[in-house]
Each structure stands twice: as C-alpha cells, then as structure tokens.
Design goal:
Elements lengths: L3 H16 L4 H8 L3 H7 L24 H11 L9 H12 L6 H9 L4 H7 L6
Helix pairs in contact: 1-2, 5-6
C-alpha cells in the first residue's frame, strides 16, 4: 500500500517525465506501477487516497469471545499445561477433563497474540530435539 504523500510524489515525477516527452507507460514502469494505477490515482484530475484502511471489517461469526480467549489462557497457564504446545493441550484437556474449548489453532492464536506472548514463552520449558 502506497501512502498518500508517496502517491503525490509519484504523480509529480510522472507528470514531470511526461512534460519532458516520456510516455505514460515508461514513466510508470520506472516507478514500479502500472499506467492503470496512475489513472486510478488521478481519476477526475485529483489525487484519490487509498480507501482500504478505512473500510470496516466485520468480526467473523465464529471468532472467539474475550471470555473464551481468557478461558483458553487460564488453561494454558496451568502448571500441567504450561510447557505443552497447543496441539497437546487440546488433546489432554479432552482426554482428562472431557472438555473441548477450541481447536488447537485457536489455542495458538489466543496464546500467540503479541500482547500475551511474554507469559507463554516464560512458562514453556526449554526442550532439546
């Protein structure tokens, strides 16, 4: 994604090159964009900002709720599960307690989120190959 100031600079450079006789295709190619991209940016004679960051993205219907994530974290931080990978936690939790909270990828996502990574990594045992 190209920022608005970078787009403005690219458009200025392309217009300068075209004023000196360069073709649109060649000028755009030098900047690593297509002529169609340039046309989209300058549609209507003015610069159009990238709208993708502004688009609302709905939460998936099957996303974990904060309460479910917290329950997963509570289980993962219990001493008997602290050194296990998510795949083994899911299996042992079901075998020993007949509980199924989520699939192992949801466990990994909940534990591996950046704001939670430190406690998980401190709880893991270092094991060799």
């Amino acid at each position: 994604m190209i920022s608005t100031p970078d787009r403005q600079r690219a458009i200025a450079l392309i217009e300068e090159a075209r004023a000196q006789g360069a073709r649109l295709e060649a000028a755009c190619r030098e900047l690593g964009i297509t002529a169609r991209t340039y046309q989209r940016w300058t549609r209507g004679g003015e610069l159009h900002e990238d709208q993708r960051p502004l688009v609302g993205r709905p939460v998936p219907a099957n996303a974990l709720t904060p309460a479910e994530e917290q329950e997963i974290l509570d289980v993962c931080h219990r001493p008997e599960y602290a050194s296990l990978p998510p795949e083994q936690i899911v299996v042992r939790l079901f075998d020993e307690e007949q509980r199924y909270l989520a699939i192992n990828t949801c466990f990994a996502r909940a534990v591996g989120s950046p704001r939670r990574r430190a406690p998980w990594s401190l709880a893991r045992k270092v094991t060799g190959w």
